[in-house]
Amino acid sequence: MNTLLAHLPALQVVVPMVAAPLCLLAGRAGLAWIIAFLAAAFATVAAALLAYQTLHHGPISYAMGGWAPPWGIEYAVDTANAFILLLVAAIACVVLVFCRTSIPKEIRAGREHLFYCMYTLCLTGLLGIAITGDAFNVFVFLEISSLSSYALIAMGGRRKSLTAAFQYLIMGTIGATFFLIGVGLLYMMTGTLNMADLSARIPELQDSRPVLAAFAFITVGLALKAALFPLHLWLPNAYAYAPSGVSAFMAATATKVSLYVLLRFTFTIFGSEFAFGNLPLLWVLLVPAVLAMFAGSFSAIFQTDIKRMLAYSSVAQIGYITLAIALANPAGVQAAMIHIFNHGLMKAALFCAMGCIFYRIGSTRIDQMAGLGRQMPWTFAAIVTGGLSLLGVPLTAGYISKWYLVQAALQTDLWWLVILIALSSMLALVYVWRLVEALYFQEPVPGREAVREAPLSMLLPTLLLAGANIYFGLDTRLPVAMTENAALLLFQGPGG
Questions:
Q1: Distances from the Cα of 426 to the Cα of 56, 297, 380, 422, 429, angstroms
Q2: CB-based burial of residue 442 (10 Å sphere; 0-12 exposed, 13-18 middle, 19+ buried)?
């Protein structure tokens, strides 16, 4: 047992990686789902154990293959990435339960085992990005998660799914190329790819042009991967035309992992003094973040497809996270990480609820949802809960996010940001109300037969995710403790 625990950092990635080809070889949907679910469940338990160990006993360094860093590849786990690992693995596990019933209806028959192969491979990539302590390994896992994401989106069953996947492929490739160029420049100047080693060597080279260029390339590449405005053009179609389970999984995890990497490189490797003191990163992030908060919400208001509405809402929420990063203080980093976690819960619940509706009526257009709230009360309850959390209403997880964000803004004396946060939240109220009004206050579509709730295998994961938005709005001990510790670790900066 002790040996198993000692190798948990490696098993966190290896188990889902091995499960992916096993799903492909299984050939049958049922067996492939069991393999994928067991891998995701193991990853969740491993992430929880790593989170407990890092929170109570400090960071973990694991040398892959016994080769000590910086010569070998290191898996470095602290409370910052353990928190991300827990979010990614837990969401993947819950959404897989949802997919067991939803996927056969949304993708072509006979391809279910291919779907679970790609899903598990995407999970592998996201976990690898979060846990690795090697900069080039970040790129490798970034490509693993991206390539599998393109395939998952293309399985949506509509011609627009292929267009969305191709658009994401082009934009994602550009982002990955920028990131790789940045890593290459760092290696040229430092002779190392180990993140801890990079953080120790970069302070001596901060004024060199290659390091400045590397920082610019890495920041733009990660901003594109995270869909920061105006580099978000791939996101609305990708979320709207992917299968429901894919939309829920990606919305809750993919952009959040990219934002975590941005945090890690900005504060741990380059350092806040370099990024925000020597360079004008404050305004480079702050201006797009504020624009995202309003442009995303304005766009969401006018959408007729609810999945696209939720996608544009994600653009706005990514703006909140980036705004918190731009504040460049421990409170801002903590607010960013709390909202990464809470937004993952919100969007997973809302996209799963949309999946329940799509399962019954075959559409996510708002004009087709009239009156469904009275026929699908549990699904409607999940939508209302997720919507309230999105608005930041007290007793929800979203309120905790907004509270910490406002506190961080006030600490930097940027009181006008508080007004902008409040105004953008009012815009969110408009599009959330449009959905509630259509579902509950409009008469059902004429001639449509009565609609029942989705099967329990879809409804229960949806309600679990919605309930998590309430639970973490009431009991904040875990996210607050982990993010507070994570913010202090990230702010130690180069060589810290």
A1: 40, 9, 21, 6, 5
A2: middle
d(CA 295, CA 428): 11
Collect all residues with Cβ–Cβ distance below 8 Å to 105 and sequence separation of at least 6.
359
Q: Is the pTM of this model over 0.70?
A: yes
What proportions of the chain, in percent to the nearest 5, are helix, strand and coil? Answer: 80, 5, 20
Residue 356 inside a domain? The answer is yes
What is the pLDDT averaged over residues 226-251? 88
Is 484 within a domain? yes
Q: What pLDDT sits at residue 428?
A: 86
Mapped onto helix, strand or coil, the DSSP state of residue 55 is helix
Q: Reply yes or no on whether the pLDDT at 334 is more than 50.
A: yes
Torsion on CA atoms 142, 145, 148, 153, rounded to nearest 10: -100
Is 496 part of any domain?
no
Domain of 471, in residue numbers: 2-490
Does the residue 122 lie in any domain?
A: yes
- Mean pLDDT for 277-303 is 87
Residues 6+ apart with CB under 8 A from 415: 409
Tell me what pLDDT residue 143 has. Answer: 92
Q: What is the pLDDT of residue 159?
A: 80
User: Beta partners for 422?
Assistant: none
Number of domains composing the chain: 1
**Cis preceding linkage at 280, omega within 30:** no
Per DSSP, helices labelled H in 268-414 are 272, 281-301, 306-326, 330-361, 372-375, 377-391, 397-411
- Tokens for 51, please give them: 């989170």
Q: How far apart are CA 289 and CA 371, in angstroms?
A: 36
Q: Are 356 and 462 in contact (CB under 8 A)?
A: yes
